[in-house]
Each structure stands twice: as structure tokens, then as C-alpha cells.
# Entry
Amino acid sequence: MLSDLVYRLRALFRRRAVEAELDDELRFHCERAIEKHMRAGRTREEAVRLTRLEFGGLDQVKDACREARGIGAIETLLRDVAYGLRMLRNNPGFSAVAVLTLAIGIGANTALFSVIDGVLLKPLPFTHPDQLVRLHESKPNFAAGSISYPNFRDWQRQNHTFSAIAISRGSGFSLTGRGEAEQVSALVVSSDYFSLLGVRPLLGRTFGRGEDEIGAAPLVLVSEALWRRKLGAAPDAPGKSLTLDGRDFQIAGVIPASFGLRPNGPAHPDVWVPVGQWQNPLLRSRAAGLGFHGIGRLQPGVTLAQARADMERITRNLAAAYPEADKGIGAKLAPLKDELVGDVRPFLLLLLGAVGFVLLIACVNVANLLLARSTGRAGEFAVRAALGASQGRLVRQMLTECGLLAAVGGGLGVLIAAWGTRAALGVLPAALPRAEEIRLDARVLLFSLAVSLAAAVLFGLVPALKMSRTSWHQTLKEGGRGAMGGRQRAQDLFVMVEVALALVLLVGAGLMLRCLGKLWSVDPGFRPDHVLTANIALPPALMTASPGAVRAAWRAIDERLASLPGFVASSLGWGAVPLGTEDEVLFWLDGRPRPASENEWSWAVRYVVGPGYLRTLRIPLLRGRFFDAHDDERSAPVAVIDEVFAKTLFGDRDPLHQRLNLTPGANFADRAEIVGVVGHVKQWGLDRDGHHPLRTQIYLPFMQMPDAAMVLTARNAGVMVRSAPGAPAVFANLRRVLAALSPEHEVYGVQTMDEIVSASLAPRQFSMILLGCFALLALALASIGIYGVTSYLVGQRTHEIGVRIALGARRGNLLRMVFGQGLRTALLGAAIGLVAALGLTQLMSRVLYGVSATDPWTFAGVVAVLISATLAACFVPASRAMGIDPTVALRRE
# Structure
């Protein structure tokens, strides 16, 4: 027999057969020999021992073949891979479940890492981004207030640590003369803005030094999108003119579409204009910030601490030189990237931990599958070990198969991540900063590869070690079934881990869901339903008209709004919008000493609105009256305050008929009489308003705006309209009403108040949705694990169950046995998970609102869900146990 085997091996060698065929040939003859001895009445262990004696030269022949053919470690590995692929192909059910489980875990991690990489990890797309710093004025009521134009100029001249400083603010212009009139988004910038960031124009040039001064020639930079849309992508666009708000601006250059910087304005504006061209009478005022914020580039080798010390010196000198305007004014500096990321970092890190749990559960699940599968392969490994295969070779083979599973699962996971990322990008821009940086690039693919390798080690190591410690002699004595008890304990332990991790994720998702529910039930101080907001720009001719003409135009619009179908109420507005834009005003109470500096005055949020504002937003009137049609430019100045203002500054005193002294920068008369008190509006967010230092609110009549401010409203003012439920599309009818007055009216920035409220909660909603998805995945994987172990238990105890049924066991006892096994494992895992959740959820406390990190209702609900999932997972194995035919079970055994 040995000579025949050697002959066939040589024939295989001459045909240069692959090593896998050699292995199959050897295994075939060994198994034939074992079967022959067992038919002769010998036990399996004796048959293997005799076969090993007969084939004593087997390994030598095999090694000689390898040596003659020059087979090295790499080729051996390739043959292990080929053998592993055949084994996975021969077990399609196991392979599909394992690969899909891994793909879900790896795909979720890859997709989330692409988000974290784009938002938190990637450097900003500018030259030396680590040198970029965000600058603000720190004021008594604002840690990060806006910078006045005169202070900015002094900061530029007097600093010793910045190579350049620039300021910017968002704005808008009416573009005419290029087809249909259009409202374009704009950024008002100083001349160093583009050179500081290292931005090169697509055509032409950027602004030069001095071109941002007041009185300089009107210049404009246009975006690539506007250049293509309005200028036909003309290469000679630089030098041509563009009409903005009725004024001609010369185009200096075209900015590429790749440039974008979100803070303090639109991320991708249509045009950029120099500061000096922004027509605002308060631009020269040292006390008026006007919404400007700064960006600076540190000189090489300068630290942020040195820059802060330098700016402290400058602001101290300015406070001494201009005590009326600059007393108490400082400078706040922060890395630009930190300001871009904002408050989203804790949410993303929370999600990263959650998705890591999902991957861990997936790995545990696959490890469980491998343990169950290794039971079926116990005979195969026992024979190979008895025939001389080393433990290392067997472990290597199993790890190779694990690596193949991880590779295929990782590849599929990348496809899932690509699909998931594309789907998420449709909603992310409203919820996350730097969403345009999120993509599957080389960094993300390397991360996916690392995760796949780590997963292979995680789910392959324990089954491999378990197999390496198995007594193959004992396995052969038991007919190839292996050490069932040890595998059962390991599988139970794995399921406990899965349940514990799933419980932690479910608790986190439950807390976020409860938190969001609490936020949605918070009273924002107004009724957002059926309210449409929009911005309106008057025809360009009115932008240079008299204040009386502008007032008349707004009155005509206000009157026409009442003709809208389904109209309930409306109001003009300028300044703050609840949960949206903000605007502030300085004041001091009449009868009290005038503060020595304007920076010692009190601050309040300012709403400049029409008489119908309260009816439009359903804000309650608590005392006195609100504005009416008589509160116009000819009547005595009046104001309305909110309840927080009344309580904070007046206490138990009656605030009605008291007088407010308003700073000249308020664009209103110096003094106004308080005629009413209204409810407080949560201007700063449903979850953050109570912690904001500026909560007092003042309402001023739109028609009492002074002439200089009224002219500015021609460029941009707001309107709010409440319609009846079921009313036709308000936006289309709004455009029709305005077009009837003048076809040059522009309507833009249309939103419903419901959308504004939802946008304020977007980061929380995004986190809750993802965390909920991860928790459901974890629950599904844990349920699969419970089902797998319970099903395995039923399969292994088929003989025992058959005996019990034959002896008259009741169905209730059998059900208790099956369900009891699953419930015991799940409850032990839940106990471990509860302890872990009590500790880990404390890390979520800073992102929760209105819910304790140890909320008992959430914990109880999660445990109930897990028990229900466990019972559902045990149902199929229990039904199968009930259907076992005792005669068939006993005969098969």
C-alpha cells in the first residue's frame, strides 16, 4: 500500500499538482485505512494508531516533495489559504452568516470613522493649518463677542505674534443686471483674508493691501459657481462689473469651488466684498462689533500662549486709551479647528465607543460560530493531529480561515460603509461641521484594514487556543465529538459578553431617546407650527431711496400679507429670530447712574418686530400691551420686555412705564418706555438657553426704527407668516403677493419654524438615530448568539431529550430546560451589563438633558426588551426540541 501511495505521489509531483491536492490524496488514503481497521472491530483510537504506524513514512515523503519543488513559507501559506477557501466554500451557510456579521461590524466602524476623520482628525485644507487661530472680543457678557472695526485695525498694527489678522462677517446682496434678480450670499472680509489662508484665485487676483479701507474703489470676488452660472465661465470675467444692491463692483477674481470656511458666515458664499464697501454707519464706531470675528496666522515658532499674552497687552493699552468703548474688552483666542468642530466632539466620541461595541459583539458572535463549527470538525482535527500534524499547524490553519473571513467581511464592510456614508451625507451638513471633508479615502481604508485584522485576532484567537488545548485522544475515544462541556461553557461566556455589551448600548440609546423626547416636550416659549419665515430684499432702487419710501414699501408688504390664503397673522422683523439668528442691544435703566463705559451697560437679545409678532408666534402677553399700528416713527418710543428681564432687573417692582436708555448703537431712540411684558423665548436652544449668560430680551417696534437703520432694511428684512392648518403653499403665494407689488422683490432663506426648531436639535437627533441603530444591531447580534447557543444545546442533547420524551417527560419540563438555559445566560449577561452601564453612562451626563444617567425607567425598559428578545430567540430551538421523535433520536445515537 505504501509503495502505491509513493507512486501516486510521484505522479502528482510530475504533473506539478498543487499542495492542496497532495493533502487531499494523503487524507483520502489515511481515512480509507482507518475505516478498514474499524470494520475489523477495532476502536477508532486503535485504528488511527495502526494507520499511523503503516504510514510512518508519510511525512517524509511529503517533505521530500516540498523540498524538491522548493516550496517555502509563502507557498505554504498560499496553500493554507486555498484549503481555507475550500472549507468556507463547502460550508456556505456558516460562511455567509460569519461574513455578513463581520461586514456589519466593520462597515459601521468604517463609516463612523470616516465621519470622525473628516470632522475631527483631518487637518484644515489650508497652508500650515496649525498656525490658524480664531479671534474674538471678550466682553463682560460675551466670552466670544464680535470685534469692532477700529479695534481690529489696532490689533493688526500693534501685535508682534501674528503674521496676519483678518476679519469677516456674513451678509447678502441683491444681484441685478445678469438675468433674473437674485439674492446672493456674501462674506464681508478684510484684505488679508485670502492671503492669510493661502487661497489662490482661479482667475484674476484677490484683494490687495488697502483695498478694504473705507472709501476705496468697490471690488468684488466671485465664486466659481456664480462665475459659471451668471458669467458663463468667461475667462475675461476679471475686470468686468457686477451690480450689487444697485452699485457697480469691479470683479477682481474668481475663487475656486474647493474653498470654503463656515464660521461667521456661509461656508460657500457667492461673493466676497471688502470691509470698506459694507455700508453701515456704525462701522467706524469702536463700541460696535457688528458681527465681525477674526482669523489670525501665528508667526512660525509662536505658541498660542504667547499670542494670548501679546493680545492681552494690546487690549490693556486700548482700554487705557479708549475707556468709554474699550474698558473691560479683551481678546479670546482659540485654534481655528476647535471652533469649527464646536460642541459636536462629545457626540462623535460617544458614537465611536458605541460602534466599537458593535464590532466587539460581531467578533464575539463569529467566535461563537467558530466554536460551534469546531465541534463538527473535531474528528477532522483529531485525525490530522493523530497522523502527525502539529498543534501549531492546526492553529495556523484555523487562524488562516479567520483571516479569510475577516478579509471578505472587511471588503463587504467597506462597501456597506461607502453606501452608508453617501446616505448620511444627505443629512449631515445641517448637523455637523466640515461635512464636506467626509469621504472614504486612503486613511479610512487603512483604518478598515486595521479593524479587519484586529477582528480576525479577536474572534479567531479564542477558538484557536481552545482547539490547541483539546485532547485529540479523548476526542477519538468519543467518536470525534470533542470536549462538548468546555465548548458549551465558552459559548455561554461569549453570549454573556454579547448581552452585556448590547445592554450598555441599549441603555445609551434609551437615554438619548428619553433626552430627545424631553427636549421635544420643552416649551420653547412660542408655537412653531404653521409658521413660515423668509427674508425679503426690496427692489434695488429702494436701497438708495429715502427712509420714507422704504417705510412705505414695508407697509405695503405688511398689508398685502393679509391677502394670503389661509392667513392668520404676520409680522415684519429685523434682528433676532428664535433659535435662529441673534442680535443684541446695550441698555441701562433710567433712574440709575449711567455706567462709565458702554461695556458696563447691560445686554439683551433684541427683536425688532411688527404688531402681529405675538399672534404669529403665539408668545403670551403677561402684562401691559404689545405694539400696535400707532407705534411708528411719529409716536413716542416704546419697548416690550420678557419675563426674565422683568424678574432680573425689576424684581417685585412693576416694570411698566419704566424707561430704558438704549446705546446709540441700537439704531433706535436713546430712551424707550416699557409698555408690556411677554413670555420668555428660548433663543439659545431648548437645552442650552438656561445656561446662556444672555437671557434677557427686548422687543422694539419695526416702524420706530430711525431713518439710518430703516434704509438698511431695504437690503434685508424678515417676515413671519402664520397660516391656518391645511392652507395652500404659503411660499408660492408669498412670492405671488410680492410680485404683484414689484417683480424685483427677492424672497430667500425660506424656512418653517418647525425646521428651525429641528435644526437646533440636529446634532442630538443625528446621535440618537445612529446610537439607536447601533443598539438595534447589537440586540440583533446578541439574539442570534442566544439562538445559536440554545440551538446548539438542543442539537447536542437530542439523545437526552429523546430519552426524556420516551420516559414520559412533560412538555413544560422540556420547555423550562430550553428556555431556562437561554434565560440564565441572558440574565447573567444583563447583570454584568447593568453594572457596566451604571459606570459608562456617567460619561454621557454632559450630553443628556432632563434625564439622569441612571434613569430607572430606561434601565428597566432595556432589561424587559432583552428578556423579550431572549425568549424570542429561544422559541425556535424549543419548538424543535418539542418535535424530536424519541425513536429516531435513539436510533441515530
User: Anything to note?
Assistant: Residues 9-22, 63-71, 479-485 have pLDDT under 50 and may be disordered. The CA atoms of residues 838 and 854 lie 6 Å apart. The first helix runs from residue 2 to 14.
